[in-house]
Automatic annotation (TrEMBL):
Protein name, as recorded: VWFA domain-containing protein
Annotated InterPro entries: Class_I_gatase-like, Ig-like_fold
Keyword DNA-binding in record: no
Keywords: Membrane, Transmembrane, Transmembrane helix
Bilayer-spanning residue ranges: 6-25, 37-59
Keyword Cytoplasm listed: no
Matching Gene3D superfamilies: Immunoglobulins
Species in which this protein is naturally found: marine metagenome
Length: 711
């Protein structure tokens, strides 16, 4: 014990305090009254305690705390642990019980007072209540990193002496277990289940094939086959479409983790989204045959598109339209021109043929029979033909009224200034199919309105307008339900000014002329669905996945402008139970493919959309659907990953034992109780008894003085 201030100073202060009290009460009482003696005692005691408080004496208090040794045991409860050929499921749980019994025998040694905690692990780590004999060994994934993270959690009076992990080392989710072991400060002893030789398995690892093809093209599919275990037989790799065999090859898998590439070449002969299946025959002793089959799709596009250009009266617009049509070599154009009451060539050819796109140019005129609208509606109802209208000076608006339902239009409700010219502006936020094309309308001359119409169907939208007090629709595009097949949509577009040719022939320079021609060429390609029904092509790498597996999507956008690239491309996924997941898609420079992935945590039916920025989407019309099955992902990796288990033990100072030597781990365990000695420095000023004594003396003096009526 030592004071903060010198002893001699304390002695002087104590003597001064004594003399002060003595003289003060001695003058009042003459040292004869017993009460005043008590008052002198209390006051002197208080002064002396204050002096000691100022001295702030300190001393060291020592003690000890016994920590109970603790061993944690983790048993693998995943599916793969029970599928090893050398160990049956019953033998496995019996072995778990043997390990637990052997460790439990150490608790009979009273000198060490051992505590044991037992857990099971798979997707999560759980406390084992009861015997290991009741374990299901049925969890669909394994997270060894979670085991290592939870192994260091102990109660305050326990000392973790070691961790025992019994597993095949297969970690299908979570971080790398060997890296995670670096945070464990006690020895980790691992017992390996099974044999290092991987279970026999032949699987389709990947299929490289184009997402989009043109009808008539030869398509190449590159299939990577992986094989594991000891395999001494050949397998058949076949390609099918709609149940028809397109090709087959025989390969001899090498096993032991080797891979082989098989190539198929076939013709894309049918337009549409074509489904293909790659299948590999199974081999002897193969348990998981679900990965022997893989399906993929190719969006097959037309190689030629037929266009009918119907001109009621030739004009400068006609010349521009022909320039735009000729710029696209895949368009085959038949031009029908009305001259007086005749058509060149004969209009009967038009009614007999089918077309992908019909363009009404400067039509209808005064000489067109009224039955034309009815006949045209009937013709359009027989297929998915797109139709466009370009107004002209000879167009008769009263006759156009009968054609408005064909285009999903209705008369414009506002008065417009015919003959006046107005500047052109884009309509912000519109559902413009040409949103990929960046066109600066301010570089073009003003235009005059010719027909007063506006969208009359939900699928039609104004994408450009003439700038007035009440803006006049200039370009109206969209999709409306087919006349005969309500579950299908057909594409429509209308240009309401007769001055289309001004944009090209009176534009502000060559760049503006090229831009407007490219814009119209792109609009024509959209109308005929030259790049397919949609403006994006994405597919899942498989049609069905297993729970815990990485789900991947890949695809292409035919065109994207700078703004859309800045806003990003997103994969929006919807699951009934999990809700919405948003995954960013990234573009691979080498393949020009947009790709994204996520881990399917729950089984079920998923809907998805591929979106640009904050693009809106319809819940009722997903871009695609995929299934996640309940799960045999664990069976892809049924073998002993000895290297991982050894790495965990080596990095923590523990040891690895094969299953056959599992009971030998008892000899390796180093168990000892630890008595922790601690010391604590106590300050007199913070010592509760001292402070209580000071308060008692002060209170006693106050009570005695009040009782005697003293101040």
């Amino acid at each position: 014990m030592s004071p903060v201030i010198p002893f001699w100073l304390l002695l002087i202060l104590a003597i001064v305090a004594f003399l002060f009290v003595r003289l003060s009460y001695g003058q009042q009482t003459g040292n004869s009254d017993r009460v005043h003696r008590l008052l002198s005692f209390f006051r002197l005691s208080v002064f002396l305690l204050i002096v000691l408080l100022a001295a702030n004496f300190q001393w060291v208090r020592t003690g000890s705390l016994s920590r109970r040794p603790l061993i944690k045991i983790f048993f693998d409860n995943s599916v793969s642990a029970g599928y090893h050929q050398s160990i049956s499921k019953q033998s496995l749980v019996n072995g778990y019980q043997e390990i637990l019994n052997a460790v439990s025998e150490l608790t009979y040694d009273e000198s060490i007072d051992l505590s044991i905690e037992v857990f099971t692990f798979g997707e999560t780590v759980s406390t084992l209540s009861g015997s290991p004999l009741g374990m299901g060994v049925n969890e669909s994934s394994t997270n060894l990193s979670a085991v290592l993270a939870s192994s260091s959690e102990v109660a305050g009076d326990e000392e973790l002496n070691g961790v025992i992990i019994v597993s095949d080392g297969q970690s299908t989710v979570g971080a790398d277990p060997v890296s995670s072991a670096g945070g464990v400060k006690v020895p980790v002893y691992t017992v390996g289940i099974g044999e290092p030789l991987r279970m026999v398995d032949v699987r389709i690892n990947s299929v490289k094939v184009p997402i989009v093809a043109v009808r008539g093209e030869m398509v190449s599919a590159e299939v990577t086959i992986e094989s594991f275990g000891e395999i001494d037989q050949r397998v058949h790799v076949s390609l099918e479409k709609g149940g028809s065999l397109l090709g087959t090859q025989i390969v001899a898998p090498g096993g032991k983790g080797s891979s082989q590439i098989v190539r198929f070449q076939f013709e894309a002969d049918q337009v549409g989204n074509e489904e293909y299946v790659i299948q590999v025959s199974s081999v002897k002793d193969e348990i998981n045959i679900d990965n022997n089959r893989n399906s993929f799709s190719i969006n097959v596009l037309k190689d030629r598109f037929r266009v009918a250009l119907i001109t009621g009266a030739p004009s400068f617009n006609t010349r521009f339209l022909k320039l735009a049509l000729e710029s696209e070599p895949k368009l085959s154009v038949e031009h029908f021109i009305q001259r007086m009451n005749e058509w060149e060539p004969a209009i009967a050819n038009f009614w007999r043929q089918s077309y992908d796109l019909i363009i009404l140019d400067n039509f209808p005129t005064s000489t067109i029979p009224s039955r034309w609208s009815t006949d045209l509606s009937r013709k359009l109802g027989r297929g998915k033909t797109a139709i466009a209208l370009v107004a002209g000076e000879a167009l008769v608006e009263d006759k156009l009224l009968a054609y408005l339902p064909i285009f999903g239009l209705q008369p414009f409700g506002e008065e417009i200034g015919f003959g006046s010219q107005f500047s052109v502006e884009a309509v912000p936020g519109s559902n413009d199919p040409m949103k990929f094309f960046e066109l600066d309308w301010s570089q073009f001359p003003p235009l005059s309105p010719k027909i007063s119409v506006e969208p009359g169907s939900e699928g039609m939208t104004t994408t450009a307008q003439l700038s007035t007090l009440s803006p006049v629709p200039l370009i109206i595009t969209g999709k409306i339900p087919s006349f005969d097949q309500k579950n299908q949509t057909v594409r429509r577009s209308v240009f309401t000014s007769a001055d289309l040719w001004h944009l090209y022939f009176r534009g502000k320079g060559a760049e503006a002329n090229t831009a407007v021609k490219d814009y119209w060429a792109s609009l024509l390609r959209w109308l005929v669905a030259m790049s397919g029904e949609e403006d994006r092509y994405f597919r899942m790498t498989k049609s069905a996945f297993q729970r815990g597996e990485e789900v991947m999507i890949e695809g292409t956008f035919p065109r994207l402008n700078t703004k859309q690239l800045q806003e990003g491309i997103w994969w929006r996924i919807l699951h009934p139970d999990m809700g919405e997941t948003l995954v960013p898609l990234t573009k691979e420079d080498a393949s020009e493919m947009w790709k994204g992935s996520f881990i399917a945590a729950e089984p079920g039916r998923y809907q998805y959309w591929t979106l640009m920025g904050d693009e809106q989407f319809s819940i009722e019309e997903p871009h695609g659907i995929f299934l996640v099955e309940q799960a045999l992902l664990e069976l892809k990796n049924v073998y002993l990953d000895k290297e991982s288990l050894e790495g965990i033990s080596e990095s923590t100072g523990g040891g690895y034992m094969p299953w056959s030597e599992r009971l030998n781990l008892i000899d390796r365990l180093s168990i000892k109780s630890r008595k922790e000695v601690f010391s604590q420095t106590v300050d007199l000023s913070h010592w509760p008894p001292f402070l209580i004594l000071l308060v008692v003396f002060l209170a006693a003096e106050w009570a005695l003085r009040r009782g005697r009526g003293l101040q």
